[in-house]
Amino acid sequence: xxxxxxxxxxxxxxxxxxxxxxxxxxxxxxxxxxxxxxxxxxxxxxxxxxxxxxxxxxxxxxxxxxxxxxxxxxxxxxxxxxxxxxxxxxxxxxxxxxxxxxxxxxxxxxxxxxxxxxxxxxxxxxxxxxxxxxxxxxxxxxxxxxxxxxxxxxxxxxxxxxxxxxxxxxxxxxxxxxxxxxxxxxxxxxxxxxxxxxxxxxxxxxxxxxxxxxxxxxxxxxxxxxxxxxxxx
Length: 233
Known about the structure:
Blueprint: H1 13-18, H2 39-47, E1 54-59, H3 61-72, E2 77-83, H4 92-110, H5 114-122, H6 132-142, H7 147-157, E3 176-181, H8 185-197, E4 201-206, H9 213-216, H10 218-225
Parallel strand pairs: 1-2, 2-3, 3-4
Helix pairs in contact: 2-3, 4-7
């Protein structure tokens, strides 16, 4: 399981707690452990998992990385679950503008405190409708990081940095379950496109939920991990 920006492996705690341990051995990776902290380092981190094949689940930023994993090492991924994510920014100019904006944000984060970033990030429109308890759970996870780690993660894995994969989705061979929250309108549209572009995709909208599905709807994420229940996710 690959977490999103501003989070840690603990983002998946509620999902892992619901998994049947006779069927699954959940492993949530810390993307800041990648060496170097880059896409290549993240691919090596996933490749080092001690399992010949695995179900790969990625959220937001972690979902973009998961797609790169599925393209780079399809023989390792038995099933792909993409939560609130995209295949990247296609337009070169838009991607360059995003990269400049993310670099400016990274500089601001390094110049402040983690709490400064938490307050700034909770005001992002993407999270505007989150219940207070979801905001607090996400903030508690972010506080496990340093400002330097947050900035480095942004520079390494932002949508402005990673190459888009829309043109490579036909290479994603495992079954793919794509999830988005009902309140997360933009990612509902993106999710539908993802699911219809990969060879074997299913898309599910989670009623009443927003972007952070592993917090708001962990049981739905667990259901998407199970091939026998994928069509109902």
